[in-house]
Design a protein that fits this description.
Helix 2 packs parallel to helix 3. The protein is of the alpha/beta class and 456 residues long. It has 21 helices and 16 strands. Helix 1 links the parallel strand 1 and strand 2.
Length: 456
């Protein structure tokens, strides 16, 4: 793609030869023989890249660089220097120059520097766009819920984000939006321009999770062929989000507690304490007090994490928000898939309000996305919905009517639960996500129960 490049140099031969080479690459090239003229040309019609000589007849190249950076902070500038001006060139790099080449330079080296500078600029612009989109996505205007309980959550999130609170615990079932809330807190904070890094504590073995969080020194274990910085270092002055904190092993919990209490940690295999200033947001869909009783979670860590607790209610406890959320998702996916769904049928809305939504807001979003993508044309109807929603009530009623408790009596509640889980998994062909939805529990809860009852 053609870019506008401004060459500022008092040597006509260099301007001409460099200009011709860049024009042959398809770029639009402008020339200025002095610093003042170059600045004026840039102010009149900004360039995508500036190639700037360090020594100019009227203004020092460093001053021109500073002025250009005032006009456009992200502008890539390649400095040209004569022999013996390396120290000044280093000063230029510190002042924001992308690169510098020593005169006389090889034309191919300059072409490569131009290519790299333009590519770097493109990537920065792309990253800036992604961050801007993230800020828009996690802005509070996009958080929906008219119920009193969600309004309280929104107020609390905003206050926490603007405060200096360093540890927050978000509790709620799977699919209630814990990650969205964590990101919203970060977006409200003073460290919004600093990293937001997340990790799922249930997704990695304890030893690997430890290395990811705290980093490791070279040679600290067999595969540690180089030193690695962990997330706590990389998220300095920003936010680290520990999802499914309830699945973290006891040993690693003690290390996390030390970070919270002392603001220090060591890399795996390290001997030096490193200080950290990072906001820690944890989330869980487990009942941590029960995990404490079972010896699976440290009580001291629990009380340090929940200095500021946030509870996200399941969708079934705020059914008045379902129409608002459903219509929002319809609008979102209409735009994304270029569809024209105008409304949700009244029977569909009745089914939505009566369904238990074990997958919560995430499940509602997925149901509507699937319906719009594959089924619906201008109106969302019951036949566009999964069977567990469109025929859920009838299925449950028929099963209850057909069951005979007398045939199974006497039986313990645990045995009944084991039979029900086993039967549901058989019916769904071992699909745990589907089985969890039918049973009205989270996938994590189902995983724990199958482990407890030793169900294959």
């Amino acid at each position: 793609m053609s870019k506008r490049i401004l060459i500022i140099d008092d040597e006509k031969a260099i301007r001409w030869s460099l200009g011709e080479a860049l024009k042959n690459l398809g770029h639009d090239v402008e020339e200025a023989e002095s610093g003042k003229k170059g600045i004026k040309m840039f102010q009149g019609d900004p360039a995508d890249l500036v190639i700037l000589d360090l020594k100019l007849p009227d203004v020092d190249g460093i001053k021109v660089l500073k002025q250009l950076k005032t006009e456009d902070e992200e502008l890539p500038v390649i400095m040209m220097t004569a022999y013996g001006e390396i120290e000044t060139a280093v000063e230029a790099i510190k002042g924001g120059a992308y690169d510098f080449l020593q005169k006389p330079f090889q034309l191919e080296k300059m072409k490569l520097a131009v290519k790299n500078a333009l590519e770097s600029s493109r990537l920065k612009a792309e990253l800036s766009g992604i961050k801007r989109k993230e800020r828009e996505t996690y802005n509070f205007k996009n958080f929906l819920g008219k119920s009193a309980v969600m309004q309280d959550v929104f107020k609390k999130v905003k206050k926490i984000g603007e405060s200096k609170a360093s540890t927050i615990l978000i509790q709620g079932e799977s699919g209630t939006g814990k990650e969205l809330v964590a990101r919203a807190i970060h977006e409200c904070s003073a460290g919004v321009r600093n990293p937001f890094l997340e990790i799922n504590c249930a997704a990695l073995p304890e030893t690997l999770l430890e290395s990811e969080l705290f980093g490791h020194e070279k040679g600290s274990f067999t595969d540690a062929k180089y030193k690695k910085r962990g997330l706590f270092e990389l998220a300095e002055e920003g936010t680290i989000f520990l999802d499914e904190i309830g699945e973290m092993g006891i040993t690693l919990q003690s290390r996390l507690l030390r970070v919270i209490e002392n603001k220090t940690f060591r890399r795996v295999g390290g001997v030096k304490d490193l200080r950290v200033n990072t906001r820690i947001i944890s989330a869980t869909n487990r009942e941590l007090k029960q995990a404490i009783k079972e010896g699976k979670f440290r009580s001291d860590l629990y009380y340090r994490l929940q200095v500021i607790p946030i509870y996200l209610p399941p969708l079934r406890e705020r059914r008045e928000d379902i129409p608002l959320l459903a219509n929002h998702f319809i609008s979102t996916f209409n735009k994304e898939f270029k569809k024209g769904i105008k409304k949700i049928g009244p029977e569909v809305m009745r089914l939505f309000k009566n369904y238990s939504w074990p997958g919560n807001v995430r499940e509602l979003r997925n149901v509507i996305e699937r319906a719009i993508l594959l089924e619906a044309e201008d109106e969302l109807l019951p036949e566009h919905l999964p069977a567990e929603i469109s025929r859920g009530e009838k299925i449950v009623e028929s099963r209850i009517a057909a069951a005979s408790v007398d045939d199974m009596f006497p039986i313990s509640l645990k045995d009944m639960e084991k039979i029900l889980i086993n039967k549901t998994l058989n019916e769904t062909g071992g699909n745990k996500s589907k089985a969890a939805r039918i049973l009205g529990i989270s996938r994590q809860t189902l995983r724990e129960k199958t482990r407890m009852y030793q169900i294959e």
